[in-house]
Amino acid sequence: MPLGGTENVTWFVVEGAEPLPRGKEPVAEDRLITPDYFDAMGVNMVSGRDFDATDGVDKPPVIIVNETLAKQVFPAGDALGKRIRRVLDDKDWRTIVGVVRDVRGFALETQARPQFYHPIAQSPGEEDEMAMVLRADAAALPSLRSAIQQELKQLDPAMPVANFRTMEQLVTIAVARPRFITLLLALFAVTALSLTVVGLYGVVAYGVNQRRREIGIRMALGARQQNVLLLVIRQGMQPALIGTGIGLVGAFAVMRMLASQLFEVKATDPITFGIVAFCLLLIAFCACYVPARRAAKIDPMNSLRCE
After folding, report:
1. Which carries the bigger pLDDT value, residue 93 or residue 303?
2. What global pTM score does this model have?
3. C-alpha separations of 261 from 211, 247, 248, 266, 276 in Å
4. d(CA 261, CA 166)
5. Are 79 and 95 in contact (CB under 8 A)?
6. Contact indicator for 129, 160 with CB cutoff of 8 Å
7. Nearest Cα to 230, choosing from 183, 150, 296, 176?
8. How is the chain split into domains, by residue range?
9. Angle at CA 86, nearest 5°, toward 13 and 47?
C-alpha cells in the first residue's frame, strides 16, 4: 500500500536500449494490481488507459508506469507504446499502455521513485500476499469492517483479514515521526523566543532605569518624547537586528540537516525565512517599546531632583 513503509523493487530493461551489466539495470518499484485500482485510490491517469477485463493471460502483456519512470527513461515524452521487461520475472516484453501520477510508496519524506504496475491476470502465481482497497463514504466505516469479513468468509473461509486501516490512518502513521520532531522543535523555538523577549525587555528596561538622569537632562535641554522613544527603541533593536542576521546565516547553514523532515517545502524557502525573521523582529520591537514608552514619559524635573 502507499506509505506502507515497505517496497518491492525489481530491475527492468527497455527494448532497444543499450544492454547493461547484470545488476546495473534501472530499478523500479513493482506493483501488482487489478483493474479500477487507480479509481479506488484516486490516482489520476496522465495519458493512456487503465487496465481492463480484456488484459488477460492470453493477451499481449501490458504495463503502466508512473511519471517519474516515464521522464527518466523516456525524456522525449513518448513512453506510450514502448516496451519494457522485468529482468527476473518476465520472459516477454510488456507494452506501456498508460502513465499515472506519482505515488509515494515508501514514505512521505522519500521522493517518488520509478514505479510500474502490471495486471494480476497476466501474472499468475505472483500474488503471494495482497492488500484489498475499497472506496467508501466515511459514514459507512463503522459497519464496513464486519461486512468485509463476512463477505470474504463466504468466498473463502480460510482467508484471513488483518491490518484493516483507513487511508487517513496510514497517512497518520507515516507522518508520526516527523510530526513528533516538529512538535519538539516548535517547543524549543517557543522557549527560545520567550527567553529572548524576556531577556531583551529586561536589558532595555534596566538600561532605561540606569539612564534616568541622562534622559532627564536630554529632555530638560529640549529633547522631545518622540526623540527619547526613538533613541531607546533604536538602541534596543540593534542587538535584535544583529542576532537575527546571524541567526539567518546559521539557519541557512544547518537547514540541510532538517531537509529530510520537510515535505514539499524547500530547506531554504525564502518566504518561511522572511516570515520568521519579521515575526522575531516584531516581537523584539514590542519588547523594546514598553520600556521606551516609559522612558519617554519621564519627568525631567523629578528625575534630576531624585538624582
Report:
1. 93
2. 0.62
3. 48, 20, 19, 11, 18
4. 24
5. no
6. no
7. 296
8. 9-133, 136-165, 175-306
9. 80
Q: Which amino acid is at 267?
A: A
> Which cell goes with 246?
546571524
For residues 3 and 170, the answer to whether their CB atoms sit within 8 Å is yes
Q: What are phi and psi of 87, to 5 degrees?
A: -65, -45
Least confident of 10-19, 81-90, 100-109, 149-158: 100-109
Quote the pLDDT of residue 67: 92
Residue 182, SS3 per DSSP: helix
Name the pLDDT band for 127 (thresholds 50, 70, 90). Answer: low
**Nearest one of 60, 4, 64 to 35, comparing CA atoms:** 64
Task: Choose among 120, 99, 109: nearest CA to 45.
Answer: 99
Residue 307 has pLDDT above 60, yes or no: no
What sections of the chain are H helices per DSSP?
37-41, 67-73, 141-155, 167-174, 176-210, 212-220, 225-254, 270-296, 300-306
Instruction: Name residue, grid cell 520532531.
Output: 181
| Residue 305: per-residue pLDDT | 62
- 216 with 260: CB under 8 angstroms? no
Q: What distance in Å separates the CA atoms of residue 150 and residue 161, rounded to the nearest whole number? A: 10
96, three cell numbers: 506501456
Higher pLDDT, 218 or 304: 218
